[in-house]
Design goal:
The protein is of the alpha/beta class. 35% of the residues lie in helices and 18% in strands.
Length: 320
């Protein structure tokens, strides 16, 4: 059994060989099928799949994106089924498949952590999921989750720094920022040592290297400057103020959802699990689950499928 999470930017795969994460932006010419074919061992291989990439702007609407993803996966894994917002598996493209990856994570973790709030902080978004309220979660679209505060569109790698900052204090001077796409959250987290250069897995705004010096250059441009003008210290001030804004937005909302749902525990997964577990005093699932916590929906949908009695997931008997 293989677990697959098709996101807008990353294709995450969990199988018996471990965790495999491929940068695969759906707004470009995504090679989903050819990437997945590397993991095919037999035409009988079953695959459990979730997605969120249907929202990519290369598609006219969500249903077009869902159909594209289902077709691409099925070309590699004909015996694939897709977990939907209705908490059921489907063998064909249906509207319920849109952005159900977070629900698979909730379905997998709810029994072990029934009184918890899950924060899954990935490259692009922060999912905040009250596991104690699982029965109320199926059917929630991303629009509804945004409105409820269960989805925050900021993450550890992708996203314009200017989306969280309107201005910064630069050596004590209030300085408006440019809304141009000059620097990403990955640039801020890299120079602050929250991620490594290897973890900077998305494309940079200027399509240049992922060194700390290159990130500092990009951060300086946020205030229409360069390093020769504001120095490394000035660029670091921008990174620190971005992190403070992001940290506050996410942590405040996690605490609110935890309070509203009367949760006793906060559990954290995703690439940002270490830094946010420190901030929230929560449980870092990476220490419990290992590397699969960085690809939680792919791991979760695989486990949910293995637990299910769906005949589509029965592995055929080989002829002797």
């Amino acid at each position: 059994m293989i677990g697959i999470d098709v996101g807008g930017a990353n294709l995450k795969i969990v199988n018996n060989g471990g965790v495999h994460i491929h940068y695969c932006p759906l707004w470009e010419h995504a090679q989903i099928t050819s990437i997945l074919e590397q993991y095919v061992t037999s035409s009988d291989d079953p695959a459990a799949v979730v997605m969120s990439g249907e929202l990519a702007d290369s598609f006219a609407n969500k249903m077009e994106g869902i159909s594209f993803i289902v077709d691409a996966v099925k070309r590699a894994f004909p015996r694939s089924c897709f977990y939907g917002m209705d908490a059921k598996f489907h063998s064909r493209a249906v509207p319920q498949l849109a952005a159900a990856n977070w629900l698979a994570s909730a379905a997998y973790l709810r029994e072990e952590y029934p009184d918890s709030v899950l924060l899954d902080i990935g490259s692009t978004t922060a999912d905040i999921i009250p596991l104690a309220r699982f029965e109320s979660l199926p059917g929630l679209t991303d629009l509804l989750r945004l409105q409820k505060g269960y989805l925050i569109y900021t993450g550890m790698l992708r996203g314009n720094v200017a989306t969280l900052l309107q201005s910064v204090l630069l050596d004590g001077v209030l300085t408006p920022v440019s809304s141009e796409y000059f620097a990403t959250s990955a640039d801020a987290h890299l120079v602050l040592n929250h991620i490594s250069a290897d973890q900077y897995s998305c494309e940079t705004p200027d399509k240049k290297e992922t060194t700390k010096t290159a990130s500092l250059r990009r951060l300086a441009r946020v205030v229409c400057a360069d390093l020769e003008e504001i120095g490394n210290a000035g660029a670091m001030q921008i990174a620190e103020q971005f992190w403070e804004a992001q940290r506050k937005q996410i942590c405040d909302q996690v605490r609110k959802v935890a309070s509203d749902s009367k949760a006793r525990q906060i559990i954290i997964a995703g690439i940002g699990s270490r830094i946010f577990s420190d901030e929230l005093g929560g449980t870092d699932l990476t220490k419990i689950l290992g590397p699969v916590a960085d690809a939680l929906p792919a791991h979760a949908v695989r486990e949910v499928a293995l637990r299910s009695k769906n005949p589509l997931f029965k592995i055929p008997m080989k002829n002797k």
